Structures are given as structure tokens and as C-alpha cells.
Amino acid sequence: MQQRTIRDKRDRFLPYLLLLPVLAFAAVFKLYPIFYSAISGFHYKGNWSLRTYQLLFQDSVFINSLLVTIRMNLIMTPLQIVLSLILALMVNNTMKGIGAFRSVFYLPVTISMPVAAICFSMILSYNNGVANTMLNAIGIGTQGFFNDKGQAMACVILLCTWKGCGYWMMFFLAGLKGIDEALYEAARVDGAGYFSTLFHITLPLLRRTSLFVMVADTSINLLLFAPMKLITDGGPRGTTDVLMYEAYRQAFKYGNYNKGSAITSVLIVFTLLIVMIQFRMMADRD
Amino acid sequence: MTLKKNLTRALLVLGLLLISVIALFPILYPLVSSFRTDQEIYQYNTVFQLHTLWPEHWTAEAYGALFRDYHFERFFLNTFLVVGVILPVSVIMCSVAAYAFAFYHFRGQKPLYALLLLTFMVPGEAIALPLYQLINGLGLVNTYSSLILPSLANGLTLFMYRQAFKDVPISLLEASDLDGASWFTCYWHVVMPLCVPTTIAMCLMTFVNEWNNYLWPLLAARKDAVKTITVAITAFKEENVVHWNLIYSSSMISALIPVLLFLPFQKYFVSGIASGSVKG
């Protein structure tokens, strides 16, 4: 798109002046911390060294945390994408009152993650939670939920999926609205059924949206923190000890600031990769 | 054919209702429970019955206690103060920068824009630790500034304003140019009034983000005097494990404002999502 210009001769310095505040704040509160953590990760006792990372990758707690984070993302992100796509397909019609359903599905998004975590921890509480009362009533029996090392991660995923799907649904809905109605018309004339239309027209055309959602969702899930801080404390037995929480715990609970920063640097590398991909995708669209 | 159609529709509605129950239960159950006494919550939780889900006696006592005994009003005031500074400064600062990007040609324009967008796309959580060191070094921990300063410049706001400014008809600006208007006149009296929907959407988003922000305020503002609402309720939960009705009521009261903002302004939230990232 061609850029419109006004008075570019008279005010050569004006645009820089207008940018200055944002640039200054970005430099101090975003760029500086990124570079600072990148550089401090390569310092060990005052010298340039890879020692911090050597130690980090020999540490079984960190390795566990890395694996937990990766595993969580591998399960949670695809699950959220598929479910939010299904939600979007369900509400993408002109039925009377469908707007109310859309709002209801979006409602969990407006609740903050800490509040959602608190509510889930109490509903799924081992001792007095209403979920266990209900499960007992139908004969399934008391479950450990966040206290059970086999179930804790599943419960975290349940919480995040409950909270996240409405958000991604909106992206898919926007994508669905962008599909030309004529394509569906043509498919109908050809006698294509719902599922063949879905797999041959809708899904291929939602490729861009899905990619975007996948990348954006991964970057959010990668930095998940509140449920671990508020419910599981990384446990039981480290099964929910994601990197973000481990970094926080090292720095603020054990006072091991260097280790916390080193873990943060690993996270920043991950996020930067994701951000680059995201950026390329946005640039493509422009 | 119509039978099949009706059946599909019935199944769809059934599915929608079922999902609605799943979406609403974790909000409605705490909401209802916040109007009960602790004793009642515990008492009816051993064996499932109607009163497990529905209170026998409604009472707003828990809400009264929050303000009377725990002074929740100061956490609300803290949050409003922080957001009250961030909103106008952030909107003006970012829209002015977007104005420069949208209406001027200058050297380094593209790399600067790319750099800013890339920088802002790194989520705050990822840099929370090094940022804490910086804020700590400046001696700003446990001050309002620690909550305000890092949130002032915002990439999404910058991006959204630039998108909106691109749609402003250039003829309007040329007309004001001929009248000899300054850049500020063009910006404040011509461009900004045309972008009111963007301003509303950005204010709502910034507000909800700040309101729900957790990790950063948890690190930077731990004293009661500056604590914001989300950190306050989580700390409250950890200190009052046995008072379930209080925990529920504090959670609900902090969830109330984002929900109340969302319901009437839904279309602005959605427009932010749709135009911000997925176009075509």
C-alpha cells in the first residue's frame, strides 16, 4: 500500500520527535531487559563463560521442567485449536440467539487466569470440592485432581482450555466470516455434504488463521504461570513444574537469581523464535 | 429433508447448551457460593443434594467482610490509580507514534516500525525477571511507578492506531494542510475524532489487561499500600485458606468489572481481535 505523505519537506525531524517517547520506553523497559538477560546468561563469576548453561543443562530439575513445558504445549495447544475450531463452527450460523452463545463461550476469557485458577482449585479440591461431591454421587468416587501426580497436569490443561478456547474461537470465527459464500454455494450445487465441504473448502481456507492461532497460543501457553503458583506449586513431584514457574521459584523463593535468569533466557529464546514466526506471518498479510 | 434438518438443529442446540453449562459452571458456582456461609458450603458438600449447588440461606456477609475487615477498597483504588495513569498516557503516546508512521516518510521508518513491533511482541512474562532487576536497581520496587512505567508503551495500541490511521481519507489532511494547521491540530482535531472506535477498543483492552495482570504486580508491588486487585485476592486466598465464601466473594468481585465491561462493549473486543491479527 502506498504511503500518504504530508509536509515531508518542512518537518524533517518531527516524525522522530513523535516517536521518541515510545522508542525510549521500548528501549528501557523491553529491549534493555532482553539484552541484559541474554548477556548475563553468558557471564559466570564475572567472566564470559558458558558455565551457567552447562550447569543448567546438567540440572535434573531444569531438564524435568523443560520436558514438562514441552509436553504440556504438545498436548494443550492442539487440543485448544481443535476445540476452538469446533466452537467456531458451531456458532458460525444465523440461528436466533446464537449471539448469546458466543458471549457465553467468550465469558471465561474475561475472567483472569488467577481468578480462574482459584475457582478451579476449589471446585476440584480433594477435600471439599464440589466436583468430588458430584463424582461420589454418581459412583465414580473421590479423585485427587491437582493432588494426584497423574491428574494434576490434566487439570491444569482443563483449566487453560476452559479459559482459552473462547478467545481462539473468535479468531476462527473471523476467519470463517472471511470465506466467500459463493464457494459454499458452488459446493452445495455439486451436492457436497457437510463434512466434505468442511474438509475440502473450510479447513484449507482457514490454514492461515490456524497457523496464527497455533503460534500465538503456543507463546501464551509457554509462559503459563498462575495455576502453578496458586495451585500446584509445580508438583506433585514436579509434574507441573513448567519453566516459567521454575524461573520464578529459583529467583524469588530460593534466592538463586542467576539460575532464575538463565531459565528466563531459555524462555526468551523460545519466545523470540515464536515472535519471529508470528511477525513474518503478519508481514505476509500486509 | 426437513426432518433431518430439524434433527441436526436440535442436536446443535443441545451441544451448544451443554458447552454453555461447562463454560458457565466454574463462574456460576463460585458466584452462588459467595452468597453463603462457610458452614453451609462445607455442610452440603459431603453428600450431593440440591443445597450442594443452591444456597439454603442467601447472605452477602462475605462481601461486607471483605471491605469491613480486610479493606479491599484500597486494592481497588490502587488498581484504578495505576490504570488511570496508564490509559491516557499510553493511548496518546502510542497514537502519536502511529501518526508519525502513518503520515510521514522518514529515513529508517520501516526498520524502526519492525523493531518496535518485534520488541513489543515479546510478552511481559518472558522478561519479568530482568525487568525486576532493572526496577529494583532504580529503587522503584513497591511504588506505583513500578506498575505504571513498564506498561506505558504498548505495541498492540501502536499497531491498531496505525491500521486505523491508514483508513483516514488523505484529502481531509490535505485540506487542513492548506489551512496551515499544525501537526497537532491534524492529529487531535482531524485524525483522532475519526478513530474513536479504535480508542474505545484500546482503552478497554488496556484496562482489562492491567486489571488481570498478575506476574508483574506480584513481583513489583508486594506491599499492601500499592498492591493491585489481582495480587490482593491471590494473597488473600493463600492467607485465608479456610474461608471459602470469602475467597469466592473476593474472586467474584474482581471478575465482575471485566465481565461488566465486556458485555456491553463486546463488539469492540471482537474488533480488536479480528483486525489486530487475522485479516483475510
Keywords, separated by commas or semicolons:
heterodimer; A: 286 residues; mainly alpha; MetI-like fold; two-stranded antiparallel sheet; 13 helices; 73% helix; globular; B: 280 residues; 75% helix
Question: What is the SS-derived class of chain B?
Answer: mainly alpha
Strand tally of chain B:
0
Q: Which strands sit side by side, in order, in the main sheet of chain A?
A: 1-2
How does the major sheet of chain B shape up? Answer: none
CATH architecture of chain B: Orthogonal Bundle
Poorly predicted runs of 5 or more residues of chain A: none
CATH fold-level assignment of chain B: MetI-like fold
Question: What's the CATH first level of chain B?
Answer: Mainly Alpha
- The value of Rg of chain A in angstroms is 24 Å
Q: Average pLDDT value of chain B?
A: 87
Summing up helix and strand content along with how strands pair, one would put the structural category of chain A as: mainly alpha
Give unreliable regions of chain B as ranges. Answer: 276-280
Which overall shape of chain A is indicated by the principal axes computed on the Cα atoms? globular
What proportion strand of chain B?
Answer: under 5%
Write down how many β-strands of chain A occur, each being a DSSP E stretch of 2 or more residues: 2
Termini separation of chain A comes to: 8 Å
Percent helix among the residues of chain B?
over 70%
SSE layout:
The complex is a heterodimer of chains A (286) and B (280).
Chain A: H1 14-40, E1 43-44, E2 47-48, H2 51-58, H3 60-91, H4 98-110, H5 113-123, H6 130-137, H7 152-177, H8 181-189, H9 194-205, H10 207-222, H11 226-232, H12 243-253, H13 257-285
Antiparallel strand pairs in A: 1-2
Helix pairs in contact in A: 1-13, 3-7, 3-10, 4-7, 5-11, 7-10, 10-13, 12-13
Chain B: H1 2-33, H2 38-43, H3 50-53, H4 61-68, H5 73-103, H6 109-121, H7 128-137, H8 144-148, H9 155-166, H10 170-178, H11 183-194, H12 196-212, H13 215-220, H14 229-239, H15 244-277
